[in-house]
Each structure stands twice: as C-alpha cells, then as structure tokens.
Fold Anoctamin transmembrane domain-containing protein.
Amino acid sequence: MSGHEGDEGVVFEIAVVVPKLGENKGDCVQSDEADCVEVLVDELRRTGLIVERIVGLQNEFLKLAAPTEILGKAAAELQFRKRTHIGMDFPFEWDEVEAFVRQPDGSLFSWCERFRCYNHIIYGIVNTKKSVIELKADNTVVDWKPGESLLQKMESVGIVKEVFPLHDEKKRKQLLRSWAMNWLDFTSQPIDDICSYYGMKGEAHTFFFRSLQLLVLPVFFICLISWAVLFFQFWKRKNSALLARWQVYHSTCAETEYKFSQTEQSTYQSPTEVMKKQGTDKMTEKADIQREEWFRWLMRFRNDAFIILSIICLQLPFELAYAHLYEVIGSDILKFCLTAVYLLAIQYFTRIGGKISAKLIKYENNDNVEYRADSLVYKVFGLYFMQSYIGIFYHALLHRNFMTLRKVLVQRLIISEVIENLLENSIPYLSYSFKKFRALRNKRKRDQGPSMGKTRSIPRVEKEYLKPTYAASIGQELEDGLFDDFLELVLQFGMIMMFACAFPLAFAFAAVNNITEIRTDALKLLAVMKRPIPRADATIGAWLNIFQFLIVMSICTNSALLVCLYDQEGKWNLSPGLAAILIMEHVLLFIKFGFSRIVPEEPAWVKAARRKNATQAEQMCSKKLLRSISGDEKLFQEIKKNE
C-alpha cells in the first residue's frame, strides 16, 4: 500500500525507515510467520497512530501522526507535569484536559512533549504473549520475545534503519518567510515560532559591534565591557520571561523526571509508609548518598586532571611552536599558509581530544544528560581555548608586537569563519545533493535506463531522510548541532573581546558575519538538515558560565594590552597612567560582579507568579496531608513499638 504525501488536516511528525520490499510480498511470507514490516504497521495502528506508507526509490517510509487523545494518554502515562489554569503544576490527566493551560500557539503539548509521547508509544509496543513470535524479514527469521520492544528488536537486526522527526511543511514555509528570508529585520526574530517548531533549546546569535589611542581605546574598552555585562544580565531577564511564557521551569530535567516516575513509584506511598521507611533506612541512605557523592567527585577530578595535563604536555608545546614560527617567518604569504595549515591540523587534533572527553564523561556517573553535556562543554572548551588563544597571548604579552597581533587576529577570524561556513553549509548541502543524485542513478539502473519511461521523482519524506542530521561533531549522544554553533560563537566572542584594544575593527567583521549567519543557519535548519530532535533545556547551560568567564578574562587582557601600549619601554613604574588603568580594571570588575545585584535575573512578575503558585500549592496540599498524617498516627506508633 503506497499512500500520497499527506492528507489535509493530518500532520505527520515522525518517520520510520524500513527496507523496500519486492513486488511479490506474499511470496516471502510463510504460513506460520508474519512479515516484520506488516506486523509493525499493524501494531502502530493498534496503538491509535495514523500510519501512511510511502514507497521511495531506495526505502519504504512509515509516516506517523497521532490524534491529540492518543498523545494525551501517553502524556498521562509519562506523568508530564503541566501548568493548570489556577497556576499550579500537576501530573497530566487526559480526563481533566480542560484544566491544563495550552501552549502559546494553541496546541495542548509542545513539540518536545509530543516527541517524547511518540517515542513512548512506538517503543512501548512489546510482545504481550507468553511465547516467542517468529517474524519474517527477507530470508531471515526474527524472534520477538515476550516483553521485548518490537521497534528496538527491528533496529537491532537492521530492519528499521532510522526513526527521525519530519518537517511540518506549513510551519517550515512560514519560518522561511519570517525568519530565514527576512533580511530587512536585523533586531527581532520570531522566537515564539522557533521555540514552538524546534523545541526549547534554541539557537542564540549575539551581535558584536596611535596619537589618540591612549584616550580612545580605554573609552572603547569601558563601553565594550559595560555593553557585555548589560547584555548578558538583561538576556537572563529575557530568558526568565520567555521560560515563564513557554511554561518551562528550572526543575529536574525531563529525562530525570521520567526515570523517577518510572523507577521510584514506591516513593508515592502513604505518609505512614514514608515515615517508616525514613526511620529504618535513614542511616543506610545517608551513607550511600555520601559514597556516591565522593565517587562522582573523584571521577570528575580524575577526568579534569587528565584533560588539563594533556593540554599542558601535548597541546601547549604545539601551540607555542606555531606561535614562534609565525614570529620568525618574514613572508606574509608563508604566514598566511602556515595559519591555514595550522587551523586544519588543530581541528583534527582537537576533535580527537573532544572524543576522548566524551568517553571519559561516561564514567563520571552524572545525574542526567544535561549534567553530562555541561561537563563535555567545559572540557572541550578548555581544549579549544588553548588552541585559539595561546598563540595570540604569545604575540600580545610576550613580544608586545601589536602589528603581528592584528595580522593574526585578521587571519584567524577570516580563515576560521571560512572553514566553519564550509563545514556548516556547503558540505551538508553537497552531501545531500550527492545522495539524491545517487538515489536517482540507482533507480535508473534498476529500470534499465530511460527507455522504461520517466523516472519517478523522489518523495518528500525520502528527501528528508537523505538530509544530514543536525548533530554535534563531538559527543553526539549528549549534544546536537547547537554545540558546534555555540562553540563557534564563544570562540569568536572571546577573540574579539579579549583583544578589543588591539584590533577594534574586529567588531565590524563579527557583526556582519553574525547577521549573515542568522539567515544562513536558518536556511540550514529549515532546508538542508533533518528536523532536529527537540531538547527541553531551560537555559544554555555551561555556555552562559563560559561567556561570563570570557568577560572577566577580557577585562584582564585588555588592561594588560593598555599597559603595554602605555608603557612601551617596559619600565613598569607606577605613573598616573598605569594607576588609572589599574583603577579602571578594578572598577570594571566591580561593575561585572556588582551589576547582577543591581539588576535581578528575573523580572518581578515572574517571581510574583512563582510565589503565588507556591502559596496555592501549599494551601491546597497542606490540609489534606496533615489530615492523612493525623489519621495514620496511631498505626505509626504501633509500628514503632513493634520495631
């Protein structure tokens, strides 16, 4: 059965890729065995999903859509906590659906919640019989054991090649008009639409804009640091407001909540059972928690020490050797070629270090995926920080050669951006085009050339399957493609901030580059890549701490650069000029750490709403809980006596 590309009113959001069968399906199914794909389709439809089968040129695709009722029942099984109209968060119940607040776009669930519901439904199909079911797959027999997930079994044997989210064509075209192709609007972005389509973890783009240099550069430096501090402080306020509007709160991540609700249901017991358990297992639980805490700390310390020693013993000599060669080479062409070769080589070596970091994180026993991702970010940033800045520090502070420093900054910014743009946009597009060409060529070979008639075009769902995945270059199981985008942004931010006094024009280049990348990244996400798997992170995590670190570093490095410009003879006398630079540094550090106290990170209405919700929850639950505890008091005393 081959369907059309989509019925009107039905939005297919998930696709399952299976091998394309021959024309005579019935010939390959024995009397006591069932075809794997047919069984999968029947089971998916039995769960209430809408299944449409699309036969492509190379594979067959099962497009899945779910009515709101099916998603609601899955959300109830997953125990999603959602905001109600009285301002409190309760576990979702389908029978009381009208009590829960809908999303800003009018839908009941966000894309991240819907994706989790789809996964729960399709991976929750298990063999409920007591005997093994034999399934036919080409010329092999697959044993579907009792209690085993059908989809996981088919993935393990290679029948299901991939499960990936589909683009919603209507919303995708709307975002193309309002986001990717809207070149005239440089300041505002359709944040709500982007969040609704891609999930909570969205992409951030930041715009960065000798006779008189001793007066102009300090003023420029002060304005720059003040802008960075104000920007990030007000960004945190804006982030808090958006999270409140999107009904996302700083609680345990979704994965931890799901694991807790599934494996710790014994916690939800009567007050008597809870008090009994606390009385008997308190000391054992305390010892286990302390042991686990110290074990985690030792694992993190071991991994961090290994990364730091690797940077010092392996990467630092390599970086200093490059910086020294750049200093002694006289030809500008040779310097430019040396930088290009160096950047290509260091990308390869740094990714090896990142992969080692990802493997080390598996042994840290972190609480959830978000903590593991933050640990990976810190380790990989340490590698890239050394790679990106140690050579520049060498030219700036050791040799005080500002002409060479400016050349290095120009070459680093231009060459690195060209390489990143090639990796981000050109290579994925060429890969996608080559896959389409190869699929059409293979189809023509199977049809024995053009004499059989016009070759059938590639279905839309197969085009999406051929698109590259929006994945991170390092630690794909922990991060998506935003990892590389944030890493590029952080390195660029640090380069133009920490050496602003040496090359102020770098801000003009960064502003033009980032304005362009807003549109190119939007086109990449909407037209070149598969729809990313949603992630429900409440903040940008470790990246925010790295940005704050770079601001502090920029205060120190630019103050040192001003000192080098002022004291060119290197006498280091405490003259009025040097004293003014020292005072300016302390004032800027005070502004950096004191401004967070002046401007709160959360708007007042967000705090008021949170306090109101907490008060309502306490008023509604306290009386019922106290009544339950009082009713079980006698029974509890008897249990204590028996013990």
Observations:
- The first strand starts at residue 14 and ends at 19.
- The chain has a mean pLDDT of 76.
- The two ends are 67 Å apart (CA to CA).
